[in-house]
């Protein structure tokens, strides 16, 4: 397949009109490439795969088969939102795979961060490949590759050949409709395609998901504490006008306990760490300084609403020396 590159003179897509022109152009190109054949897409609910899904639904409707794998490490409400937006509102041909037990069982007792990442990545490919083999007549695989992915892989910084991870018998031709776009352009296109703001302006989220925010061996109760505290943090940031302004914000629940007191009784529970950072290139990050009111409010909500947490800590460390994630 000819590898499409971003033309040097391509205008940056900044307006709904430019987005609409791009969408029309891609719909024609997709129809030309795949005809009446079927296309498979791993739909995580992140910006890139969501925009690719919405584009392909417009172009080929039910011939796009989306597979959403819930590996148990997604944020609160994410699988539900994928089903609501794509299946219920856009009438997508969506297969939802509940692989929560499968992933968490494999991860049980695994403490090494790199091993955790390998299990999550490897298992994802296995689940996706199993679903692909159950389907007949699929010849194409759609991917949310974007222009910086191509530049980074050409520069040897990152390997972005997602399809390269699939077993050899699954030999699909790639469909990459946003491969010439920068991230900000993908968002403008997503908005024009009618995707909800909290999907289009979503903060970066690592592939291994909440797994790297539950340091050490993942247990279901501590993972729930991460998920619930993260949901509270996101809700409060949205209410306080920080959503879309702060680059990335999340909670971490480390694997140690400290003494506390509740209702006159001793508790022995985890701390919850809050991290909110800003950056342009993720090589260096600065910390977002929160207001005293917001800090107090977050502490109150998390210690009263999240089971297993008796202390809230704020990580005000820049990168370097501290990386964004804890693992
Ligand atoms: P670090 O922790 O390396 O994070 O300072 C920099 C950015 O990369 C994200 N990140 C990941 N993204 N898979 C991903 O897709 C990963 O394994 C991974 N680890 C870190 C992190 O959230 C931050 O935006």
Helix count from the secondary structure assignment: 10
Approximately how much beta-strand content do the residues carry? Answer: 15-25%
Secondary-structure-based class equals: alpha/beta
Largest sheet, if any? 5 strands, parallel
For the termini, the CA-CA separation is 37 Å
Structure ligands? xanthosine-5'-monophosphate
Element-level helix/strand string? HEHEHEHHEHEHHHEEEEHE
Overall pLDDT confidence: 95
Gross morphology is globular
DSSP summary, beta strand count: 10
Strand order of the largest sheet: 3-2-1-4-5
Low-pLDDT ranges: none
Q: Can you give a write-up of this model?
A:
This protein has 327 residues and is α/β, with parallel strands linked by helices. It contains 10 helices and 10 strands. Helix 1 (16-34) packs across helix 2, helix 1 (16-34) packs across helix 7 and helix 2 crosses helix 7 (183-192). The chain starts with 15 loop residues before the first helix and ends in a 13-residue tail after the last strand. The model has no long low-confidence stretch (mean pLDDT 95). Bound molecules: xanthosine-5'-monophosphate.
List the helices and strands and how they pair.
Elements: H1 16-34, E1 38-42, H2 47-60, E2 64-70, H3 78-89, E3 93-98, H4 100-107, H5 113-134, E4 138-142, H6 147-154, E5 173-175, H7 183-192, H8 197-200, H9 220-239, E6 248-252, E7 258-262, E8 265-278, E9 286-287, H10 292-305, E10 309-314
Parallel strand pairs: 1-2, 1-4, 2-3, 4-5, 8-10
Antiparallel strand pairs: 6-8, 7-8, 8-9
Helix pairs in contact: 1-2, 1-7, 2-7, 9-10
Xanthosine-5'-monophosphate binds next to loops.
